Amino acid sequence: MAVDYSYQDIAKMIDHSLLQPTLTDEELEAGCRVALEYDVASVCIKPYYLKRCVQWLHGSTVRASTTIGFPHGGHTTAMKLKEAEEALDDGGEELDAVVNIGKVLSGDWNYVQAEIVQLTRLTHEGGQKIKVIFENCYLQDQHKIRLCQICGEAGVDWVKTSTGYGSGGATHEDLRLMRKHSPPQVQVKAAGGVRTLDALLEVRALGVSRVGASRTAEMLDECRLRTGDRRA
């Protein structure tokens, strides 16, 4: 069956996730090697290992990314900004920042907006990109829509469904809603539950440009089979 995508189209949608709390230094290094081998979009790695990850990825087209306020979003804004500053200093190119979920549920939109604006400004002044994580499993549609509006006004680069550590991950309903209520220049990232190539292709058809994945090798091995791309 003919396919309407290339290996690179799919590989450059994947943020290879290395965030599990039990991952050792050796496993993080191995994960960076997987990301390089498959030439994915980025490695999203635990903050303490980011500087080393940047060294591993040097000279490649794989970007180094990490998390801010992860996974619960309850850090103070000042602490999130410090995390972002350190990540940028360590060479981070994309920052995945969790909103303050409790403030969203409290309807304190001034707080939520101010935090997103400050993080976005700091990241962009550093010449890098930011993804804002909603953790949709805890939110109602009205919360998600307002977050999309705030993120659009702030100029974030991606809105992201989930951390992968909440009670649920990306759903097609949420992805459609986020794409509908975000301006065209704001991309959508699906995280949590995209474990096969077919699942990735389904969210791609909904307008998703990035997915967080830990089963990267399996997905991209299947992509190579379907596209006939045999690059090493």
Structure, described:
- The protein is α/β, with parallel strands linked by helices and 232 residues long.
- It has a single domain (7-227), classed as Alpha-Beta Barrel (TIM Barrel), CATH 3.20.20.
- Helices cover 47% and strands 16% of the residues.
- The chain contains ten helices and eight strands.
- It has helices spanning 7-11, 25-38, 50-57, 77-89, 101-106, 109-125, 141-154, 172-181, 197-205, 216-227, and strands spanning 14-18, 42-45, 63-68, 94-98, 129-133, 158-160, 187-191, 210-213.
- An eight-stranded parallel β-barrel has the order 1-2-3-4-5-6-7-8, surrounded by six helices.
- The chain is globular.
- The two termini are 23 Å apart.
The low-confidence runs, each spanning 5 or more residues with pLDDT under 50, are: none
In angstroms, what is the radius of gyration?
A: 17 Å
CATH superfamily: Aldolase class I
Mean pLDDT: 97
Helix-strand makeup class: alpha/beta
Main sheet characteristics = 8 strands, parallel, barrel
CATH architecture name: Alpha-Beta Barrel
Put simply, the count of helices is 10
Strand order of the largest sheet: 1-2-3-4-5-6-7-8
Summed up, the domain count is: 1
Count of individual beta strands = 8
Beta-strand content estimate: 15-25%
- What gross morphology would you assign? globular
**Helix percentage:** 40-55%
Secondary-structure topology with pairs:
Elements: H1 7-11, E1 14-18, H2 25-38, E2 42-45, H3 50-57, E3 63-68, H4 77-89, E4 94-98, H5 101-106, H6 109-125, E5 129-133, H7 141-154, E6 158-160, H8 172-181, E7 187-191, H9 197-205, E8 210-213, H10 216-227
Parallel strand pairs: 1-2, 1-8, 2-3, 3-4, 4-5, 5-6, 6-7, 7-8
Helix pairs in contact: 4-6, 6-7, 7-8
